[in-house]
Amino acid sequence: MHEGSWGISHTRVPTESRPGHVALIAGFYEDVSAVAKGWKENPVEFDSLFNESKYTWSWGSPDILPMFAKGASGDHVYTYSYDAKREDFGTHDATKLDTWVFDNVKDFFHAARKNQSLFSKVNEEKIVFFLHLLGIDTNGHAHRPSSREYKDNIKKVDDGVKEIVSVFKQFYGNDGKTAFIFTSDHGMTDWGSHGAGHPSETLTPLVTWGAGIKYPEIVSADIAPLMASLIGVPFPLNSVGRLPVDYLNGTDHFKAESVFTNAVQILEQFKVKMAQKKEVTLPFLFTPFKFLSDSEQLNILRKARSYIKQGKFDEVVSLCEELIDLALKGLSYYHTYDRFFLGINVVIGFVGWTSYVSLLIIKSHSNLTRDVTKEVKKPSCLLLCSFGAIGILVAVFLLIQACPWTYYVYCLLPVPIWYAVLRQFQVIQDVVASLLTFPLSRFVGFLLVFTLGIEVLVLSFFYRCMLTAGLIAFAGWPFLTQLWTQAKITSLSWTFFSLLLAMFPLMPVVGREPDISLVMGAGLLVLLLSLFVVTSLIKRKNSLVKEELLVHLLQMLSTVLSMYVVHSTHSSLFKKQGLPLMNQIVSWKYVYGNSLAIPLLTSQILVIYGPHHQIIHTR
C-alpha cells in the first residue's frame, strides 16, 4: 500500500447483510427487531450517509440498495439493481453479479460525458458512489470459500476495482479529490455460512485510499462518520461510530473540529434517549446515568470550545474522545434500561412453565403422589381473584409507562402460568411429603447429580466436549439401577447408543466440504431401528398398537423421502444445476404436512417397557 491504509474492521452479530450495511452506511447497529422483517425493510426510519449526501448513485443487489433509498429525504439517491432471479446459489455463475456492477458503472460514466445534466451532478461535491458486490458472498455460500469459484471471483473483483479506479481517475482528470473505501459487511466461515459471532464472521477487511486518507483497526460503525468527514457532509443522526482521526490526512484544527462535532452528535443521541426513557418511567423508579450529568456535559463542552480557541487541538481530541466514551456508555445504559426487569419476568415465566410441566409428569407418571386418579378440586375463588388482580395491576403499571406490546407478553405470561402451577397445590404437597421421607444422603446425592447435570449443559455452550462427558455418564446409568437386572437388552442398547452419540460433539463443527455419507448413514440407521420396532409391534396382537404401527410406518416413509431430497439436492448443487423445483415442493409439503398430521395421528398412550410390558392410558 503506497497510496492509502489498510486494517481490520470489527462488525457485530448478527453477521447478516442488512445489519452489516446499516452499520457501514448509517453508523449504528440495528435493533434485533429487524429480523421480524427478514432484515429487508426498515423497522424504523433512520438517517444515513446516503441521505446526508448531495447525490448518491448505487449499483448492486435489489435486497440491499432499496432500503437506503426508501428512507432518504428527497430524490437524490439513485439505485440500479439487477433482477433478483440472478441471485441463485446453484445455477448461475455468481461472478456475473459483480461483472454486471462494474459494466454498469463504466456505462454510467460513459453516458455522463454525453448528458449535460448528469455530467453536472457527478461533478458536484459531497457525492457518493456505492458499488455492492454480491458475487463473492454468493459463491461462498454455494461453493465454500476454499473453492476455485470463490478464488476466481476474488480475482475478478480485484481486476474490476482496478478498472473502476482507472475510470474515476480518467473521468475526473486525476484531480485527487476522490476517496475510496473498500470493505465488507461481514465475513464467512469455511463452511460458507455467516450470521454468528466467530472471528471469521465478524472480522472484515478495510482498505482506504485517495483524498483525505492518511494511513488500522476500527469497528464497522466507524466507517460512516469517516465517509461523512471525507466528503464534508453531516454525520448521520443515528450514528454511534467514532471518527477514526488517524485515517484523516488534514490539519490538526480540522481533526479537532471533526471530533468535536462527532462528540456533540453522539451526546445529542444520549440526551434524546435519556429524555425518552425518563418520560415513560415513573419518577420514583427512574435512575439516571450517573457518570454523565448535565453539569458534566456542559463542563466538557465548555473546555473543548476553549481549547479550540487556544489552539490546543490534541487536548480537544482527547477530551472529546472521553465525552464520546461516556455518551456511548450512557446510550447503552438507557438502551438496556429495562433488561433486568424483562429478564426477571422471562425467568419467572420459564421457571413457572418448567414447574407446571414437571408437576403434570409427576402427577400422571410417577408414584410420588398419593392418588393420581382422584378428582381435581375446583380452584378456589380466592386464588383466581388474586391472580386476576395481579394481572390487572401489571397491565396498569405497563400502561402508565407506555410500554410496547411485547412488554405485556413478557410480564403477563407468568400470571396464568403460575396460576396453573398453584392449582396443583395438592400435587406439590404430595411431592414435598415424599421428598421429606427420603434419606438425607440420597436426597443430597440426587441434588448433586442434578446440579452437575445443569453445569454440564451450561458448559456445553462454551465447550462442546462437555456433551461427550455427559453422554458417557448417561451410558453408565442403567448399571446403577435395577434396570440392568430386569432388562439387560434395553440397558445394553441404552449404553451403546449413548456412547455412539458421545462421539459426535468431538467432531468438527463445520468443514470445507459437505460429508453426505454421514447424513445418509444416519438415515439408514434410523430405518434399521424403525424396522426392529415395527417387527416388535407386528408380533404383539393388540388393538392398541395399530395406531402406533401406522405412525411408525409413516415416519419410515418420511425418512426415506428426506434422504432422497437431501441426496438429490446435494447432487444437483454439486453439478451446478440449482435447487430442483420438485425438491422445494416436497420439502415445504413435508414440513407443513408433518407439523399438522403427526400430532393428530400420534396416540396419547404411554408405553412402559419392563420385565412385563405395560400400557397405560393417559387420555
UniProtKB/TrEMBL annotation:
SUPFAM superfamilies: Alkaline phosphatase-like. Gene3D superfamilies: Alkaline Phosphatase, subunit A. The chain crosses the membrane at residues 340-361, 381-399, 405-422, 431-454, 460-480, 492-510, 516-538, 550-570, 590-609. CDD domains: GPI_EPT_1 (cd16020). GO terms for cellular component: endoplasmic reticulum membrane. Pathway: Glycolipid biosynthesis; glycosylphosphatidylinositol-anchor biosynthesis. It is a multi-pass membrane protein. It is found in: Endoplasmic reticulum membrane. Its EC number is 2.-.-.-. GO terms for biological process: GPI anchor biosynthetic process. Ethanolamine phosphate transferase involved in glycosylphosphatidylinositol-anchor biosynthesis. Transfers ethanolamine phosphate to the first alpha-1,4-linked mannose of the glycosylphosphatidylinositol precursor of GPI-anchor. PANTHER family: GPI ETHANOLAMINE PHOSPHATE TRANSFERASE 1 (PTHR12250:SF0), PHOSPHATIDYLINOSITOL GLYCAN, CLASS N (PTHR12250). Belongs to the PIGG/PIGN/PIGO family. PIGN subfamily. This is GPI ethanolamine phosphate transferase 1. The lineage of its organism: Eukaryota, Metazoa, Chordata, Craniata, Vertebrata. The gene is LOC109681406.
